[in-house]
Amino acid sequence: MMAIREAFAAFRRAPLLSILGVVTIAFSLFAFGLFGLVAVNIADALRSLENRVEIRAFIAEGTPVEASSAAMGDIQAFPEVLSVTYVSQDDALVRARKELGEFSDVFEPGVLPASLDVKLKPGYRDPTTVSAVANRIKSYDFVDDVRFGEDWVAKLYRLRTIATLVGTGLGLAFAAVAVIIIGATIRIMVMARAEEIAIMRLVGATNGFIRLPFILEGFIQGVLGGLLALGLTWATSTAISHSFMRTAFFDPTLATLGVVSGALIGLLGSTFAVGRQLRRL
Amino acid sequence: MSLVRFLNVAKEYQRGGVALTHASFQLNKGEFAFLTGPSGSGKSTILKLIYMEERPTAGDVWVSGVSAREASRKEVSMVRRHLGIVFQDFRLLEDRSAEANIAFALEVTGTPADIIRPKVARVLTQVGLASKGTALPRELSGGEQQRVAIARALVNDPYILIADEPTGNLDERATRGIFQLLRDINLAGTAVIMATHNLELIRRTEYRTIELNHGRLVFDSAEAPPPEAAQPAAPSHHDENTI
Question: How high is the ipTM of this complex?
């Protein structure tokens, strides 16, 4: 009880420093949150793109229909494969004209090759699996070429990794600064209460009891910083949703994890500082 | 069993040199002892060794059977809960009332609030300040502030009251009052060890006197009859460590 009262009293005694601690934690997690948001949205985009991942195996001209039909049966039996569709030269032309709209007359009949369009089961749509299946299909003699949009799938995956790494890096740097600032806050609090602490020790208060309010204070600063960061990230995400594009926000588990990280940063900063400072008194 | 036992104790400070050598004595239950000697003679060091603020460099100190050399930090805290400590400069928290200062000693040892209130009222009455519980330290006279400090020391029902120059900052009248209070506390069963320069107080009573000079125990009335004429204390350059 006394520890909680004292922890809150610290906010009254040094409001500026306490706010600085909270804001630094908030910035650290906000940086982390922004890049996290990018990563989450790329992951979302990847999921929806993955639904459209398709391997198109172009069939060499003059291939007998029996050969491609037999291959279709084989490919259908691959564990990764959801469906195989035969697209004739005529079908390909119809589809191309539909997709190209006003430029639909660039293709002459018979220019586009026939193909086998292979869709993969969910869970097998990542770049590695897709390219492995594509290679297997490519090994058929009658297959001229295989396309599966390898470039942009790999690029998106790379982008997600970069966003995650940059976010983690920046977040950690800010977190280190937050730990230092909270440490400084706690040190000043300890110094301001040096007399009180000396009396506490004389009357037999244990070290744990003396530490508790300071550690609690760091924890409270951390939780507040975490909540502030969550609010800032949410506001940013909402603003982007309104003005540019619809963006996804963290699910409750990730959001909670953010606040918990704040609490941990606060705990870490205060625990280190109070331990060192009390030894000096 | 003795409450406090010093056996061949030496204390050397990293800066400041030897503060105490070959000190051996015991303090028994219910005893009253003066600790006297010039500044820097080791009085405060002995008291600090008793409340384990300092640990002996050689020899050992036992307080309620706990060895100062071996006690963990937790054990030191537990020992202190049975000691009452009073200083020349009172060491009250200026921002809270007399009552709150006394209650503080109980709060920080985890005593429940419903036990704290009656205990605080009892010790305030015991030190004669029943009507001044809500006063801030600066609203009280020096003597009254020292009474609050004594009340804070008493509230944990200590075995021993350790008083380091408790009358050093007080005028004669307040000194007499505080000394009488310490005697009453002793009569009620608490052992008292009091460091003082005030030879007048010592002469007026028959209490045990332990005299120190240059970190050595030069006289203990429990072991020898008092000297015919007290030697004037030699001035010392050895500055006593402040607490």
Answer: 0.83
